[in-house]
Design goal:
7 helices; about 200 residues; about 35% helix; alpha/beta
């Protein structure tokens, strides 16, 4: 069983900047989101007799989120670079508007979901999926994972075996988290778990 969390809102999230491997601190709202998700996760696993470990992307925004989670769930934690966000190379830290202005024509034919993989020096879709698959294959017990928006989509997509288009269109909430179990994933948000399917 995997509980997959996304980091809380960052300053760059509010500005529409794709962070990639660069970093931006959590906003006040992001800290509140992390605290709410931590309490929700605590409630979710409070009756479990299983022992969880936490695997965290080494980027600052995920580490900051993990620190908030550990305030209520003091579980063993390790950083894992395979959980880092997809990099768009030298586009990391830019908005789509800036990319379109500085690199005219590079985003032609792309949409809101696939432009990430148009970067000439960024990580490819196949490489990122391979990284996600490699991480999933190494899971040996109940795990809490803290990762990122785009990479979280790929983890869920690879885990459930959906198409590239379906993967890229998956939602990326910061107010809840996903439970990955038996080849499916469910969104846990608020007091009632809801199934967040692809269709």
């Amino acid at each position: 069983m995997i509980y997959l969390l996304r980091h809380g809102e960052t300053i760059w999230n509010t500005l529409g900047r794709f962070q990639g491997r660069k970093d931006s601190p959590l906003t006040e709202r992001g800290i509140e989101q992390a605290d709410r998700v931590a309490k929700l996760l605590q409630t979710e696993i409070s009756n479990s007799e299983q022992s969880f470990q936490m695997s965290v992307s080494p980027l600052g925004r995920t580490r900051q989120t993990a620190a908030r989670v550990k305030r209520v769930l003091p579980v063993a934690t390790q950083e894992d670079a395979r959980l880092m966000e997809v990099s768009v190379g030298y586009w990391d830290g830019m908005t789509k508007f800036e990319i379109d202005n500085e690199f005219p024509g590079m985003l032609d034919g792309s949409d809101a979901f696939d432009w990430y993989f148009k970067s000439p020096d960024g990580e490819s879709f196949d490489a990122a999926c391979s990284r996600a698959n490699d991480w999933i294959a190494d899971i040996r017990g109940p795990t809490i994972a803290i990762s990122h928006g785009l990479f979280g989509r790929l983890v869920r997509g690879v885990y459930s075996g959906v198409s590239k288009r379906e993967m890229l269109e998956l939602p990326v909430p910061q107010e809840g988290f996903y439970c990955l179990c038996n080849g499916e994933f469910n969104l846990i948000s608020g007091s009632v778990p809801s199934v967040d399917r692809l269709f």
